[in-house]
Each structure stands twice: as structure tokens, then as C-alpha cells.
């Protein structure tokens, strides 16, 4: 499972690098999402966490994903020719 998550994260980073340029893709690597997923699903770090803590972590993931999406959208709409 861990290897699958890392492969998906690496592929996402390479696709983002193709869309936005590799310098920008290195800034928004997907490995923080892998760390959160491992912490929640495999290591059960949030078993006794409060609802507020879970909400903040989920908000962090949502903001991170929306930032990556905005970066990809701005790169694809810039009219850059490959």
C-alpha cells in the first residue's frame, strides 16, 4: 500500500512538472499528502484526536490539493507552447 501511494505521488509530481514546469513541480511535491495518508490510515495517529484536529488536517489537505490544481490550471492557461 505504501509503495502504491508513493508511486501515485511521484506520477502526480511528474505530470505537474510537465504541465507547470519542473521547478514549480518540485515546490509542490505530493509527499506531504502521502505522509498524512500514512499517518491516518496505517499508523492510526488520529485515533484519539479531537474533531478540531481532524478538521484542520483535512482542511490542510484540501487547501494543498486546491493549490496544486490552481497551479496546473494557471500553467495550462498561460498559452505556453511545448
SSE pattern, N- to C-terminal: HHHH
Mean pLDDT: 75
The structure class reads mainly alpha
Beta-strand percent range: under 5%
Stretches where pLDDT falls below 50 for ≥5 residues?
Answer: none
- Give the CA-based shape: flat
Number of helices: 4
Helix content: over 70%
**Total domain count:** 1
> What is the straight-line distance between the termini?
35 Å
Main sheet characteristics: none
Radius of gyration: 15 Å
Beta strand count: 0
In short:
With 82 residues, the chain is mainly α.
Characterization of this structure:
- With 82 residues, the protein is mainly α.
- The protein has one domain (2-76).
- Helices cover 77% and strands 0% of the residues.
- It has helices at residues 2-20, 22-27, 31-42, 51-76.
- Helix 1 runs antiparallel to helix 3.
- It starts with a helix and ends in a 6-residue tail after the last helix.
Task: Give the SSE layout.
Elements (H helix, E strand, L loop, with lengths): L1 H19 L1 H6 L3 H12 L8 H26 L6
Helix pairs in contact: 1-3
Quick tags:
82 residues; flat; 77% helix; 4 helices; mainly alpha; 0% strand
Amino acid at each position: 500500500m505504501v509503495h502504491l501511494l508513493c508511486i501515485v505521488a511521484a506520477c502526480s509530481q511528474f505530470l505537474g512538472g510537465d504541465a507547470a514546469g519542473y521547478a514549480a513541480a518540485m515546490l509542490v511535491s505530493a509527499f506531504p499528502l502521502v505522509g498524512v495518508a500514512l499517518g491516518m490510515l496505517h499508523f492510526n495517529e488520529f485515533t484519539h484526536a479531537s474533531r478540531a484536529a481532524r478538521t484542520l488536517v483535512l482542511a490542510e489537505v484540501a487547501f494543498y490539493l486546491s493549490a496544486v490544481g490552481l497551479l496546473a490550471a494557471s500553467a495550462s492557461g498561460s498559452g505556453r507552447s511545448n
